[in-house]
């Protein structure tokens, strides 16, 4: 176990060198440069020093909510390594199952093209689309299914946003997202293998999908930040940092909006897209539901407490409707 923990700590330290991590140094540097430019432009700050002070505001980075983000990042990594990483689904059997299923239904399919550029381009795009849509779908489910919402509330309990807030999650949610990734990649690889054969490869930059790399370099870490970077008309197609900040807003008009990660088209299809506006003031957290998520123990135990409370409420409602209470279904219920 000691070796496993040391390995995990080593992986955390190497995250800044891994383009598949949001903490990759290139992504952080890109966010810093964009943040400096946007902050200096939008707020009229005089000089680089003023922009730096705004970006690294101690009240945000040392806020108790931000400190909990840092703790959860470390502890969740250790929990993953010790408990659920060995049992999470893997991509390979899913890919083989999808490919075999397609062949059994539609018969053998010779490669539709031998052009390597077309194959690589198609495979890169398929991987990206499957990943982005399944992220959107699971995120949507996290809000719409009461049982899952109790776990996702840990993420939405953040009172300030920093790039580390992306790692503010309950281990149950982390497990579901890891499973989602295996399923998404398995489907993408299985379908691509059926149509293009074994010669599969993607456009990558330092080992990361080129489209994902580009998205992360273009300020993905500003999604969880206080930098208000709007993308204008592009927000109908791509989720801007401000649009994700709107998703965290305590304003009832913003509840259950902007679930997307990179593409905004899924939100347009589901009717949950909200565009940003100038001078938009946002507050973050759970509002009137903001209770019991302010330290590590509460973050891990509160979801189970809330699930139990909801179950008891449903039991009492069925037993005595006139005295029952309606359980929470999402944070768009302001009565909790």
UniProtKB/TrEMBL annotation:
- What residues form the membrane-spanning segments? 24-45, 78-98, 118-138
InterPro entries assigned to the protein according to its UniProt record, in alphabetical order = Fatty_acid_hydroxylase, Sterol_Desaturase_Related
- Looking at the record, the residues that make up the Fatty acid hydroxylase domain are 125-272
> What is one term from the GO cellular component aspect held by the record?
membrane
| GO MF annotation list | iron ion binding; oxidoreductase activity
Please, one GO biological process term? Answer: lipid biosynthetic process
- The primary site where this protein sits is membrane
Arranged from A to Z, the UniProt key words for this protein are:
Membrane, Transmembrane, Transmembrane helix
Please give the Pfam families that the UniProt record associates with this protein.
FA_hydroxylase (PF04116)
Species: Salinimonas iocasae
Q: Which domain of life is it from?
A: Bacteria
Where does the protein end up? Membrane
Region (Disordered) location: 315-336
| Ranges of Polar residues composition bias in the record | 326-336
What protein is this chain from?
A: Sterol desaturase family protein
């Amino acid at each position: 176990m000691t070796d496993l923990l040391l390995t995990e700590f080593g992986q955390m330290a190497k995250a800044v060198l891994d383009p598949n991590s949001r903490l990759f140094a290139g992504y952080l540097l890109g966010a810093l440069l964009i943040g400096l430019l946007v902050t200096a432009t939008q707020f009229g700050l005089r000089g680089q020093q003023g922009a730096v002070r705004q970006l690294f505001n101690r009240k945000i980075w040392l806020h108790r909510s931000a400190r909990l983000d840092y703790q959860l990042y470390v502890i969740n990594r250790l929990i993953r390594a010790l408990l659920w990483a060995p049992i999470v689904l893997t991509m390979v059997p899913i890919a083989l199952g999808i490919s075999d299923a397609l062949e059994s239904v539609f018969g053998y399919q010779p490669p539709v093209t031998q052009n390597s550029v077309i194959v690589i381009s198609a495979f890169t795009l398929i991987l990206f689309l499957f990943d982005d849509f399944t992220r959107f779908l699971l995120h949507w489910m996290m809000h719409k299914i009461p049982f899952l919402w109790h776990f996702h509330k840990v993420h939405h309990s953040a009172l300030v946003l920093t790039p580390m807030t992306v790692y503010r999650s309950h281990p149950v949610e982390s497990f579901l997202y890891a499973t989602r990734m295996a399923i998404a990649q398995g489907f993408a690889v299985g379908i691509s293998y059926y149509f293009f054969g074994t010669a599969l490869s993607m456009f990558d930059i330092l080992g990361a999908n080129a489209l994902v790399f580009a998205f992360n370099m273009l300020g993905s870490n500003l999604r969880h930040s206080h930098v208000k970077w709007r993308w204008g008309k592009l927000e109908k197609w791509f989720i801007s940092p401000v649009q994700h900040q709107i998703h965290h807003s305590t304003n009832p008009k913003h509840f259950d909006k902007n679930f997307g990660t990179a593409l905004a088209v899924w939100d347009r299809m589901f009717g949950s897209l909200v565009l940003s506006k100038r001078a938009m003031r946002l507050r973050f957290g759970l509002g009137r539901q903001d209770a019991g998520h302010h330290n590590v123990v509460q973050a891990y135990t509160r979801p189970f407490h809330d699930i139990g409370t909801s179950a008891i409420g449903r039991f009492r409602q069925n037993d005595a409707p006139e005295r029952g209470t309606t359980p929470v279904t999402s944070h768009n219920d302001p009565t909790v």
